Amino acid sequence: MTERLTYRAHVRALLVLGLPLVGSNLAQMILHVTDTVMLGWYGVEALASVVLGASTFFILFILGAGYSIAVAGMVASALGRGDETQVRRDTRMTMWHSILFGVVVLPILWWSGPILVLLGQDPALAALAQDYLRIAGFGMIPALLLNTLKSYLSALERTQIVLWATLSGAVVNVVLNWMLIFGNWGAPELGVRGAAIATLVTQVATMAILMVYAAQKPELARFHLFQRFWRPDWPAFAQVWRLGWPVGLTGLAEGGLFNASALMMGWVGTIQLAAHGIALEVAALAFMVHLGLSSAATVRAGRAEGERDLRKLRDGAVTAIALSMVFGLVVVAVFLTLPGPIVGLFLDETKPGTDAILAFGVVLLAVAALFQMFDAAQVMALGLLRGVQDTQGPLWISAVSYWIIGIPASYVMAFPMGLGGVGLWLGLTIGLAVAAVLLTWRFWARWGRGVPAGWAVKA
Which pTM value belongs to this model? Predict the structure, then answer.
Protein backbone atom coordinates (compact mmCIF):
# COMPACT_ATOMS: atom_id res chain seq x y z
CA MET A 1 0.00 0.00 0.00
CA THR A 2 1.34 3.43 -0.96
CA GLU A 3 1.70 6.05 1.74
CA ARG A 4 -1.23 8.44 1.85
CA LEU A 5 -0.42 12.01 0.78
CA THR A 6 -1.43 14.78 3.18
CA TYR A 7 -3.87 17.42 1.97
CA ARG A 8 -1.02 19.92 2.13
CA ALA A 9 0.95 17.73 -0.27
CA HIS A 10 -2.08 17.52 -2.57
CA VAL A 11 -2.43 21.31 -2.51
CA ARG A 12 1.23 21.78 -3.35
CA ALA A 13 1.16 19.21 -6.18
CA LEU A 14 -2.00 20.70 -7.66
CA LEU A 15 -0.65 24.26 -7.53
CA VAL A 16 2.75 23.31 -8.98
CA LEU A 17 0.95 21.72 -11.91
CA GLY A 18 -2.02 24.08 -12.08
CA LEU A 19 -0.62 27.58 -11.60
CA PRO A 20 1.35 27.58 -14.87
CA LEU A 21 -1.83 26.34 -16.58
CA VAL A 22 -3.80 29.14 -14.94
CA GLY A 23 -1.19 31.61 -16.16
CA SER A 24 -1.30 30.08 -19.63
CA ASN A 25 -5.10 30.30 -19.74
CA LEU A 26 -5.00 33.93 -18.61
CA ALA A 27 -2.38 34.73 -21.22
CA GLN A 28 -4.54 33.02 -23.85
CA MET A 29 -7.46 35.13 -22.72
CA ILE A 30 -5.33 38.23 -23.20
CA LEU A 31 -5.57 37.51 -26.92
CA HIS A 32 -9.34 37.95 -26.76
CA VAL A 33 -9.29 40.73 -24.17
CA THR A 34 -6.78 42.66 -26.26
CA ASP A 35 -9.07 42.37 -29.28
CA THR A 36 -12.05 43.50 -27.19
CA VAL A 37 -10.26 46.46 -25.57
CA MET A 38 -8.62 47.77 -28.72
CA LEU A 39 -11.71 47.29 -30.87
CA GLY A 40 -13.73 49.00 -28.13
CA TRP A 41 -11.39 51.96 -28.59
CA TYR A 42 -11.75 51.66 -32.37
CA GLY A 43 -15.56 51.76 -32.41
CA VAL A 44 -18.78 50.20 -31.13
CA GLU A 45 -19.62 48.51 -34.46
CA ALA A 46 -16.17 46.94 -34.70
CA LEU A 47 -16.45 45.67 -31.13
CA ALA A 48 -19.93 44.21 -31.62
CA SER A 49 -18.93 42.49 -34.88
CA VAL A 50 -15.90 40.82 -33.30
CA VAL A 51 -18.06 39.69 -30.37
CA LEU A 52 -20.17 37.85 -32.98
CA GLY A 53 -17.16 36.61 -34.94
CA ALA A 54 -15.17 35.45 -31.94
CA SER A 55 -18.23 33.72 -30.48
CA THR A 56 -18.73 31.84 -33.75
CA PHE A 57 -15.07 30.82 -33.91
CA PHE A 58 -15.09 29.75 -30.27
CA ILE A 59 -18.18 27.58 -30.56
CA LEU A 60 -16.57 25.60 -33.39
CA PHE A 61 -13.20 25.56 -31.66
CA ILE A 62 -14.63 24.08 -28.47
CA LEU A 63 -16.35 21.35 -30.48
CA GLY A 64 -13.06 20.40 -32.14
CA ALA A 65 -11.10 20.79 -28.91
CA GLY A 66 -12.87 17.79 -27.38
CA TYR A 67 -10.11 15.51 -28.64
CA SER A 68 -7.30 17.69 -27.34
CA ILE A 69 -9.01 18.06 -23.96
CA ALA A 70 -9.67 14.33 -23.62
CA VAL A 71 -6.07 13.38 -24.44
CA ALA A 72 -4.78 14.92 -21.19
CA GLY A 73 -6.57 12.26 -19.12
CA MET A 74 -5.59 9.54 -21.59
CA VAL A 75 -1.90 10.43 -21.49
CA ALA A 76 -1.91 10.81 -17.70
CA SER A 77 -3.58 7.41 -17.28
CA ALA A 78 -1.09 5.78 -19.68
CA LEU A 79 1.79 7.27 -17.72
CA GLY A 80 0.24 5.98 -14.49
CA ARG A 81 0.24 2.50 -16.04
CA GLY A 82 3.79 2.95 -17.34
CA ASP A 83 2.70 2.60 -20.99
CA GLU A 84 4.79 5.21 -22.83
CA THR A 85 3.97 3.81 -26.28
CA GLN A 86 0.30 4.58 -25.72
CA VAL A 87 1.23 8.16 -24.83
CA ARG A 88 2.64 8.68 -28.32
CA ARG A 89 -0.20 6.85 -30.07
CA ASP A 90 -2.99 8.80 -28.35
CA THR A 91 -1.32 12.20 -28.79
CA ARG A 92 -0.47 11.67 -32.43
CA MET A 93 -3.97 10.60 -33.38
CA THR A 94 -5.38 13.55 -31.46
CA MET A 95 -3.36 15.80 -33.74
CA TRP A 96 -4.83 13.98 -36.74
CA HIS A 97 -8.33 14.66 -35.44
CA SER A 98 -7.46 18.33 -34.89
CA ILE A 99 -6.22 18.81 -38.45
CA LEU A 100 -9.22 17.05 -40.00
CA PHE A 101 -11.65 19.11 -37.94
CA GLY A 102 -10.00 22.39 -38.92
CA VAL A 103 -10.31 21.53 -42.62
CA VAL A 104 -13.99 20.58 -42.28
CA VAL A 105 -15.13 23.79 -40.52
CA LEU A 106 -13.19 26.31 -42.63
CA PRO A 107 -16.04 26.71 -45.19
CA ILE A 108 -18.47 27.53 -42.37
CA LEU A 109 -16.21 30.33 -41.17
CA TRP A 110 -15.55 31.58 -44.70
CA TRP A 111 -19.27 32.01 -45.45
CA SER A 112 -20.34 32.97 -41.93
CA GLY A 113 -22.00 36.27 -42.92
CA PRO A 114 -25.20 34.80 -44.43
CA ILE A 115 -25.42 32.33 -41.54
CA LEU A 116 -25.34 35.14 -38.99
CA VAL A 117 -27.98 37.08 -40.93
CA LEU A 118 -30.24 34.00 -40.91
CA LEU A 119 -29.76 33.92 -37.12
CA GLY A 120 -31.21 37.41 -36.86
CA GLN A 121 -28.07 39.55 -36.75
CA ASP A 122 -27.75 42.98 -38.32
CA PRO A 123 -26.40 42.56 -41.90
CA ALA A 124 -23.71 45.21 -41.42
CA LEU A 125 -22.41 43.55 -38.24
CA ALA A 126 -22.61 40.11 -39.90
CA ALA A 127 -20.51 41.36 -42.84
CA LEU A 128 -17.83 42.72 -40.49
CA ALA A 129 -17.87 39.46 -38.51
CA GLN A 130 -17.35 37.54 -41.76
CA ASP A 131 -14.39 39.76 -42.63
CA TYR A 132 -12.87 38.81 -39.28
CA LEU A 133 -13.58 35.08 -39.67
CA ARG A 134 -12.26 34.80 -43.22
CA ILE A 135 -8.83 35.46 -41.75
CA ALA A 136 -9.21 34.06 -38.23
CA GLY A 137 -10.69 30.82 -39.62
CA PHE A 138 -7.27 29.74 -40.88
CA GLY A 139 -6.18 29.73 -37.25
CA MET A 140 -8.47 26.81 -36.35
CA ILE A 141 -5.90 24.10 -37.13
CA PRO A 142 -2.97 25.77 -35.31
CA ALA A 143 -5.28 26.59 -32.37
CA LEU A 144 -6.37 22.96 -32.04
CA LEU A 145 -2.84 21.61 -32.46
CA LEU A 146 -1.69 24.10 -29.82
CA ASN A 147 -4.38 22.82 -27.47
CA THR A 148 -3.31 19.22 -28.10
CA LEU A 149 0.32 20.01 -27.30
CA LYS A 150 -0.73 21.87 -24.16
CA SER A 151 -2.64 18.79 -22.97
CA TYR A 152 0.24 16.47 -23.85
CA LEU A 153 2.85 18.57 -22.07
CA SER A 154 0.56 19.16 -19.09
CA ALA A 155 0.06 15.43 -18.64
CA LEU A 156 3.86 15.11 -18.66
CA GLU A 157 3.91 17.88 -16.00
CA ARG A 158 5.76 20.23 -18.36
CA THR A 159 3.49 23.17 -17.72
CA GLN A 160 6.19 25.86 -17.45
CA ILE A 161 6.86 25.81 -21.19
CA VAL A 162 3.13 26.06 -21.83
CA LEU A 163 3.02 29.21 -19.71
CA TRP A 164 6.03 30.91 -21.29
CA ALA A 165 5.00 30.08 -24.85
CA THR A 166 1.52 31.48 -24.27
CA LEU A 167 2.86 34.63 -22.60
CA SER A 168 5.18 35.21 -25.55
CA GLY A 169 2.22 34.83 -27.89
CA ALA A 170 0.17 37.32 -25.90
CA VAL A 171 2.90 39.96 -26.22
CA VAL A 172 3.08 39.39 -29.99
CA ASN A 173 -0.69 39.76 -30.21
CA VAL A 174 -0.72 43.10 -28.37
CA VAL A 175 2.00 44.53 -30.63
CA LEU A 176 0.34 43.34 -33.84
CA ASN A 177 -3.08 44.57 -32.74
CA TRP A 178 -1.66 48.04 -32.02
CA MET A 179 -0.10 48.10 -35.47
CA LEU A 180 -2.81 46.56 -37.61
CA ILE A 181 -6.11 47.68 -36.05
CA PHE A 182 -5.20 51.38 -35.86
CA GLY A 183 -2.48 51.62 -38.52
CA ASN A 184 0.30 52.59 -36.12
CA TRP A 185 4.05 52.51 -36.89
CA GLY A 186 3.44 52.79 -40.61
CA ALA A 187 1.20 49.71 -40.85
CA PRO A 188 -2.12 49.83 -42.75
CA GLU A 189 -5.28 50.55 -40.71
CA LEU A 190 -7.20 47.26 -41.01
CA GLY A 191 -9.71 47.39 -38.13
CA VAL A 192 -11.31 44.01 -37.52
CA ARG A 193 -9.11 42.40 -40.19
CA GLY A 194 -6.06 43.59 -38.33
CA ALA A 195 -7.28 41.93 -35.13
CA ALA A 196 -7.83 38.68 -37.04
CA ILE A 197 -4.33 38.74 -38.58
CA ALA A 198 -2.75 39.40 -35.19
CA THR A 199 -4.58 36.46 -33.62
CA LEU A 200 -3.71 34.10 -36.49
CA VAL A 201 0.00 34.95 -36.40
CA THR A 202 0.04 34.52 -32.62
CA GLN A 203 -1.58 31.07 -32.79
CA VAL A 204 0.88 29.83 -35.40
CA ALA A 205 3.90 31.16 -33.51
CA THR A 206 2.82 29.67 -30.17
CA MET A 207 2.09 26.31 -31.76
CA ALA A 208 5.53 26.30 -33.36
CA ILE A 209 7.25 26.95 -30.03
CA LEU A 210 5.54 23.98 -28.36
CA MET A 211 6.18 21.72 -31.36
CA VAL A 212 9.90 22.48 -31.28
CA TYR A 213 10.01 21.92 -27.52
CA ALA A 214 8.14 18.59 -27.73
CA ALA A 215 10.37 17.37 -30.55
CA GLN A 216 13.77 18.63 -29.34
CA LYS A 217 13.70 18.48 -25.53
CA PRO A 218 16.02 15.55 -24.61
CA GLU A 219 13.81 14.33 -21.74
CA LEU A 220 10.87 13.99 -24.15
CA ALA A 221 12.75 12.41 -27.05
CA ARG A 222 11.83 8.89 -25.89
CA PHE A 223 8.21 9.48 -26.90
CA HIS A 224 9.13 10.09 -30.59
CA LEU A 225 6.00 12.19 -30.97
CA PHE A 226 6.52 13.31 -34.58
CA GLN A 227 8.36 10.26 -35.89
CA ARG A 228 6.46 8.87 -38.91
CA PHE A 229 3.64 11.23 -38.11
CA TRP A 230 1.92 10.48 -41.42
CA ARG A 231 1.32 6.81 -40.52
CA PRO A 232 -2.23 6.08 -39.35
CA ASP A 233 -2.89 4.23 -36.09
CA TRP A 234 -6.53 3.28 -36.43
CA PRO A 235 -7.07 1.67 -32.99
CA ALA A 236 -5.72 4.80 -31.28
CA PHE A 237 -7.65 7.01 -33.72
CA ALA A 238 -10.86 5.22 -32.73
CA GLN A 239 -10.05 5.47 -29.01
CA VAL A 240 -9.45 9.21 -29.29
CA TRP A 241 -12.72 9.53 -31.21
CA ARG A 242 -14.66 7.53 -28.61
CA LEU A 243 -13.50 9.70 -25.70
CA GLY A 244 -13.12 12.99 -27.56
CA TRP A 245 -16.43 13.55 -29.31
CA PRO A 246 -18.47 13.57 -26.07
CA VAL A 247 -16.04 16.13 -24.61
CA GLY A 248 -16.43 18.30 -27.70
CA LEU A 249 -20.21 18.10 -27.58
CA THR A 250 -20.13 18.82 -23.84
CA GLY A 251 -18.14 21.96 -24.58
CA LEU A 252 -20.57 22.76 -27.40
CA ALA A 253 -23.48 22.45 -24.97
CA GLU A 254 -21.88 24.92 -22.56
CA GLY A 255 -20.46 27.16 -25.26
CA GLY A 256 -23.82 27.08 -27.03
CA LEU A 257 -25.43 28.48 -23.91
CA PHE A 258 -23.16 31.52 -24.08
CA ASN A 259 -23.25 31.79 -27.88
CA ALA A 260 -27.04 31.68 -27.86
CA SER A 261 -27.00 34.44 -25.25
CA ALA A 262 -24.80 36.55 -27.58
CA LEU A 263 -27.18 35.98 -30.48
CA MET A 264 -30.23 36.84 -28.37
CA MET A 265 -28.42 39.87 -26.93
CA GLY A 266 -28.01 41.01 -30.54
CA TRP A 267 -31.82 40.98 -30.77
CA VAL A 268 -31.95 43.25 -27.70
CA GLY A 269 -29.59 45.86 -29.20
CA THR A 270 -26.04 46.77 -30.28
CA ILE A 271 -25.26 48.61 -27.04
CA GLN A 272 -26.38 45.62 -25.00
CA LEU A 273 -24.37 43.24 -27.20
CA ALA A 274 -21.21 45.30 -26.74
CA ALA A 275 -21.72 45.36 -22.95
CA HIS A 276 -22.39 41.62 -23.01
CA GLY A 277 -19.08 41.04 -24.77
CA ILE A 278 -17.17 43.03 -22.17
CA ALA A 279 -18.86 41.43 -19.16
CA LEU A 280 -18.36 38.00 -20.66
CA GLU A 281 -14.65 38.69 -21.20
CA VAL A 282 -14.30 39.68 -17.54
CA ALA A 283 -16.17 36.58 -16.33
CA ALA A 284 -14.08 34.43 -18.67
CA LEU A 285 -10.86 35.81 -17.19
CA ALA A 286 -11.94 34.58 -13.76
CA PHE A 287 -13.06 31.29 -15.29
CA MET A 288 -9.56 30.70 -16.68
CA VAL A 289 -8.30 30.18 -13.12
CA HIS A 290 -10.91 27.50 -12.48
CA LEU A 291 -10.16 25.96 -15.87
CA GLY A 292 -6.43 25.77 -15.11
CA LEU A 293 -7.08 24.07 -11.78
CA SER A 294 -9.56 21.76 -13.50
CA SER A 295 -6.94 20.79 -16.12
CA ALA A 296 -4.46 20.02 -13.35
CA ALA A 297 -7.15 17.97 -11.58
CA THR A 298 -7.67 16.01 -14.82
CA VAL A 299 -3.99 15.09 -14.95
CA ARG A 300 -3.80 14.12 -11.29
CA ALA A 301 -7.04 12.14 -11.46
CA GLY A 302 -5.75 10.39 -14.58
CA ARG A 303 -2.50 9.45 -12.86
CA ALA A 304 -4.41 8.11 -9.84
CA GLU A 305 -6.71 6.14 -12.15
CA GLY A 306 -3.75 4.66 -14.03
CA GLU A 307 -2.08 3.72 -10.72
CA ARG A 308 -5.41 2.36 -9.38
CA ASP A 309 -5.01 4.50 -6.25
CA LEU A 310 -8.53 5.37 -5.12
CA ARG A 311 -7.44 7.27 -2.01
CA LYS A 312 -5.22 9.54 -4.06
CA LEU A 313 -8.09 10.14 -6.48
CA ARG A 314 -10.56 11.09 -3.75
CA ASP A 315 -8.20 13.26 -1.71
CA GLY A 316 -7.04 15.04 -4.86
CA ALA A 317 -10.64 15.73 -5.84
CA VAL A 318 -11.44 17.27 -2.44
CA THR A 319 -8.36 19.48 -2.70
CA ALA A 320 -9.14 20.69 -6.21
CA ILE A 321 -12.75 21.53 -5.40
CA ALA A 322 -11.79 23.42 -2.24
CA LEU A 323 -9.16 25.55 -3.99
CA SER A 324 -11.56 26.42 -6.79
CA MET A 325 -14.30 27.45 -4.36
CA VAL A 326 -11.97 29.74 -2.39
CA PHE A 327 -10.96 31.58 -5.54
CA GLY A 328 -14.61 31.80 -6.60
CA LEU A 329 -15.51 33.67 -3.42
CA VAL A 330 -12.73 36.18 -4.06
CA VAL A 331 -14.04 36.83 -7.58
CA VAL A 332 -17.59 37.34 -6.31
CA ALA A 333 -16.32 40.03 -3.92
CA VAL A 334 -14.41 41.81 -6.72
CA PHE A 335 -17.35 41.76 -9.14
CA LEU A 336 -19.69 43.22 -6.55
CA THR A 337 -17.37 45.96 -5.28
CA LEU A 338 -15.52 47.16 -8.42
CA PRO A 339 -17.82 46.69 -11.43
CA GLY A 340 -17.53 50.24 -12.82
CA PRO A 341 -13.72 50.45 -12.96
CA ILE A 342 -13.52 46.94 -14.45
CA VAL A 343 -15.93 47.62 -17.31
CA GLY A 344 -14.40 51.06 -17.85
CA LEU A 345 -11.05 49.49 -18.74
CA PHE A 346 -12.58 48.23 -21.99
CA LEU A 347 -14.01 51.57 -23.17
CA ASP A 348 -12.90 54.90 -24.60
CA GLU A 349 -14.94 57.64 -22.92
CA THR A 350 -14.81 59.84 -26.05
CA LYS A 351 -16.68 57.30 -28.20
CA PRO A 352 -20.48 57.56 -28.69
CA GLY A 353 -22.50 55.08 -26.63
CA THR A 354 -19.80 54.54 -24.01
CA ASP A 355 -21.95 55.65 -21.04
CA ALA A 356 -24.77 53.29 -21.99
CA ILE A 357 -22.39 50.36 -22.45
CA LEU A 358 -20.76 51.08 -19.08
CA ALA A 359 -24.09 51.26 -17.23
CA PHE A 360 -25.38 48.00 -18.67
CA GLY A 361 -22.03 46.24 -18.24
CA VAL A 362 -22.04 47.05 -14.51
CA VAL A 363 -25.45 45.38 -14.13
CA LEU A 364 -24.28 42.28 -16.01
CA LEU A 365 -21.21 41.92 -13.78
CA ALA A 366 -23.49 41.78 -10.74
CA VAL A 367 -25.34 38.87 -12.35
CA ALA A 368 -21.98 37.27 -13.25
CA ALA A 369 -21.16 37.23 -9.53
CA LEU A 370 -24.23 35.03 -9.07
CA PHE A 371 -23.09 32.30 -11.44
CA GLN A 372 -19.40 32.40 -10.50
CA MET A 373 -19.57 29.56 -7.94
CA PHE A 374 -21.75 27.38 -10.16
CA ASP A 375 -19.38 27.85 -13.10
CA ALA A 376 -16.42 26.89 -10.90
CA ALA A 377 -18.17 23.76 -9.59
CA GLN A 378 -19.24 22.46 -12.99
CA VAL A 379 -15.82 22.86 -14.65
CA MET A 380 -14.05 21.20 -11.72
CA ALA A 381 -16.43 18.23 -11.80
CA LEU A 382 -15.87 17.94 -15.55
CA GLY A 383 -12.09 17.95 -15.07
CA LEU A 384 -12.25 15.15 -12.52
CA LEU A 385 -14.59 13.06 -14.67
CA ARG A 386 -12.33 13.47 -17.71
CA GLY A 387 -9.38 12.31 -15.64
CA VAL A 388 -11.14 8.98 -15.06
CA GLN A 389 -12.19 8.94 -18.75
CA ASP A 390 -15.88 9.39 -18.00
CA THR A 391 -17.03 11.55 -20.94
CA GLN A 392 -20.40 10.33 -22.19
CA GLY A 393 -22.42 10.83 -18.99
CA PRO A 394 -21.28 14.45 -18.61
CA LEU A 395 -22.36 15.07 -22.21
CA TRP A 396 -25.99 14.23 -21.46
CA ILE A 397 -25.95 16.17 -18.20
CA SER A 398 -24.60 19.24 -19.99
CA ALA A 399 -27.06 18.94 -22.87
CA VAL A 400 -30.02 18.85 -20.49
CA SER A 401 -28.68 21.60 -18.22
CA TYR A 402 -27.79 24.08 -20.94
CA TRP A 403 -30.06 23.37 -23.90
CA ILE A 404 -33.24 22.08 -22.27
CA ILE A 405 -33.07 24.29 -19.16
CA GLY A 406 -30.57 27.15 -19.57
CA ILE A 407 -31.30 28.49 -23.07
CA PRO A 408 -35.12 28.31 -22.76
CA ALA A 409 -34.87 30.00 -19.36
CA SER A 410 -32.76 32.79 -20.89
CA TYR A 411 -35.26 33.35 -23.70
CA VAL A 412 -38.33 33.32 -21.46
CA MET A 413 -36.81 35.66 -18.88
CA ALA A 414 -35.45 38.05 -21.53
CA PHE A 415 -38.45 38.39 -23.83
CA PRO A 416 -41.84 37.07 -22.55
CA MET A 417 -40.98 38.21 -19.00
CA GLY A 418 -39.51 41.47 -20.30
CA LEU A 419 -36.21 41.39 -18.37
CA GLY A 420 -34.09 41.94 -21.48
CA GLY A 421 -30.35 41.37 -21.22
CA VAL A 422 -30.47 40.81 -17.48
CA GLY A 423 -32.98 38.00 -18.02
CA LEU A 424 -30.59 36.40 -20.51
CA TRP A 425 -27.86 36.27 -17.89
CA LEU A 426 -30.19 34.96 -15.20
CA GLY A 427 -30.98 32.09 -17.57
CA LEU A 428 -27.25 31.39 -17.86
CA THR A 429 -27.09 31.17 -14.09
CA ILE A 430 -29.90 28.62 -13.93
CA GLY A 431 -28.28 26.38 -16.54
CA LEU A 432 -24.88 26.49 -14.84
CA ALA A 433 -26.41 25.73 -11.43
CA VAL A 434 -28.16 22.60 -12.69
CA ALA A 435 -24.97 21.38 -14.42
CA ALA A 436 -22.85 22.00 -11.32
CA VAL A 437 -25.13 19.95 -9.07
CA LEU A 438 -25.54 17.01 -11.46
CA LEU A 439 -21.89 16.73 -12.54
CA THR A 440 -20.61 16.91 -8.95
CA TRP A 441 -23.13 14.29 -7.91
CA ARG A 442 -22.02 12.00 -10.77
CA PHE A 443 -18.37 12.07 -9.75
CA TRP A 444 -18.97 11.37 -6.07
CA ALA A 445 -21.70 8.79 -6.72
CA ARG A 446 -19.31 6.78 -8.95
CA TRP A 447 -15.98 7.37 -7.19
CA GLY A 448 -16.77 8.54 -3.69
CA ARG A 449 -17.77 5.20 -2.18
CA GLY A 450 -16.66 1.63 -2.60
CA VAL A 451 -13.86 0.28 -4.80
CA PRO A 452 -14.41 0.13 -8.60
CA ALA A 453 -14.43 -3.32 -10.18
CA GLY A 454 -10.98 -4.47 -11.24
CA TRP A 455 -9.08 -2.08 -8.98
CA ALA A 456 -6.47 -3.22 -6.50
CA VAL A 457 -7.36 -2.01 -3.02
CA LYS A 458 -5.13 1.02 -2.36
CA ALA A 459 -7.95 2.84 -0.68
Answer: 0.81
